[in-house]
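dumping the sequnces here before i forget
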Amino acid sequence: MISPKVEKEVMRSRQSSGLRILIWSIFSLVAVLLVLGIYIMVRQSAMRMSADYYYPFLKAVRGTENTVSDQILLMQSKTKLANALQKLMNENAILSAEQAVVADLKKENTELRALMTLGRKDTFRPVFAEVLTRDPMTWQEQFTLDKGSRDGIEPGNLVVTPVYSNLPNMPRIAVIGKVKSVTGHTALVSTVLSRDFRLSVSLPDSKASGILEGTRNSSGMQATLKFLPLDTVPAAGQTVYTNAFSGNSPPGLPVGIVADESRSVQNPRRNQLYLETAVRPFESPAEVRFAAVFVKEKK
Amino acid sequence: MIIRLAYIFLLTGVFAVPELFLRNFGLFFPFCALFIFYIAVAFGNRWGFVAICLAALALDLPGSGSAHPWSVLAFLPVLFLASGWLKRAEADSVMMNFLPGLVIPAVVWILSAVFFSGHFFHVLIEQFPALFPACAFSAVWLPVLIFLLDNLNSRLSLPLFTDAKLNQKLTLK
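..and the predicted 3d for all of it:
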């Protein structure tokens, strides 16, 4: 039989041992964290000190290596050095040429892919063609395609080309000109910058229509949109589309954008009768290599 | 006469093809104009005019795609230049023909820009740098052309460029 006094003593001793374990655990944890912290600090310091300490030696080795390499290079004959330089220059030229070819192929691929997506538009079907000839005197204004009347092309048909640009919101294809004359195998195209070019176009944002004429202004890369109603507000950046008024071209094809107002024509109000503004085509006619001609299907 | 016509016809074609080919790359080398100069001096102005007509037909209709052979007008000064060169210049050496070789591209280039381009000043600015290599090339090419065609003509018993001055003097006497 245990007396209540002993029992009390035992209980107290059990409580104090639990408390001791808890205290030791906390102390151990703190000690471990402390040691870990010290280890990390020491490791970082040691690493930094070690790296800085060995830097001159490592640098000396590298420096010696470079010096020896340079001295060996200087000891070589001029002919050998010149040959090595020539070899490098040749390799550089080959790589540059390859890069240019790849860039050219990339552009050609993009253009052909854009043309492949082209389908029928109402009663118009596209006839795909490649630029056959150009003349330096009419480089921006005319080019000849390798398809003609045998493929159904007629004078007045609309010519579109892929637009190659990294800018956002650019259409994949855009109008570049109109067929001026055809032979059995060729078609002569007047571009949007040619004086022969005239096309009825619309500004959907302004709900206005006018005639686009290929009169190059001072910048050299802009056509003029004439006969717009006087109440039209052709804001810069507005896209100009074809309309169905002429009946010879599919409507809704992008042609160009209204040029910056500051660079527009000097006197936009002609005799207070109509308004005119400058339009920049999406693609430079000088860059065109592939095109599609929209030919009207005969019933 | 038929032999001369066939000769001019064939050689006009031979010189028109590389000229058209180079024009596709934006290069202006007047092979035909230099051939016209040769024909005008060696064969006379009438044959020179025949060469002009053939060259204009070959270059304008398939090349620049113009409705009319405007190059006839651009090539006409070459005919006058040939006459002037034959009458005035006392050049004993074939090499001296580098001078008309230098002048011909510039004359033809300016007149072509006038007759063909819709925007004369733009074309003038854009194409002006291409004129210098054209002049330099023509200055070298014309004496070479005279040498080559004179060799060919001597085999075909046709008039020679190098005899043109002598023939003219004999005719005047």
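The helical segments of chain B are 2-23, 31-42, 45-64, 71-88, 98-116, 120-156, 164-172.
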